[in-house]
Write a structure and sequence with these properties.
Blueprint (H helix, E strand, L loop, with lengths): L2 E8 L1 H5 L3 H10 L3 E8 L3 H7 L9 H8 L4 E9 L1 H9 L12 H5 L8 E3 L3 H11 L11
Antiparallel strand pairs: 1-3, 1-4, 2-3
The structure holds guanosine-5'-diphosphate (GDP) and magnesium ion.
């Protein structure tokens, strides 16, 4: 199995509800390592650029409005099959459809306020990691 990196975001709803620790704990217990992390409050321009693939969708203004409504944690998770593993831990986009025990099933309120983001492919992981982090900010384990 391949060691991969993926871009994870703890969204404003989860940060606001003091769920940062709970969510990070799930990643760590699943064997994913946090190799970069920062708290930011995204500007409209930053959120629009990050979600550029959804620019034509009807929910785009709501998505950008929500993602700029409060601080988020942007981070890089590393581990075996990190991209798919993170998506499994997150659960389906709509929390009502998310499998029991996933982050979105347990902590998310709605399809807008759905607690977490995770890259969906190696190509998007590469783009999304580079969107927020320089190589020098990524700190793989040495022990
Ligand atoms: P994700 O990869 O599971 O986060 O889902 P997508 O990449 O398809 O969409 C990005 C984000 O846009 C999702 O996490 C949702 O917060 C939001 N979103 C997606 N689809 C819808 C929708 O049909 N309606 C609304 N209101 N928001 C949506
Ligand atoms: Mg997506």
């Amino acid at each position: 199995m391949a060691i991969e990196r993926t871009l994870s975001i703890i969204k404003p709803d989860a940060v606001s509800r003091n769920l940062i620790g709970e969510i990070e704990s799930r990643f760590e217990k699943a064997g994913l390592q946090i190799v970069a992390a920062r708290m930011i409050h995204m500007t409209q321009e930053q959120a629009e650029g990050f979600y550029a693939e959804h620019r034509e969708r009807s929910f785009f203004p709501d998505l950008v409005g929500f993602m700029t409504s409060g601080p988020v944690i942007v981070q890089v998770l590393e581990g075996e099959n990190a991209i798919a593993r993170n998506r499994e831990l997150m659960g389906a986009t709509n929390p009502k459809e998310a499998e029991a025990g996933t982050i979105r099933a347990d902590y998310a309120d709605s399809i807008d306020a759905n607690a977490v983001h995770g890259s969906d492919s190696p190509e998007s992981a590469e783009r999304e990691i580079a969107y927020f982090f320089n190589d020098s900010e990524i700190c793989p384990r040495t022990l």
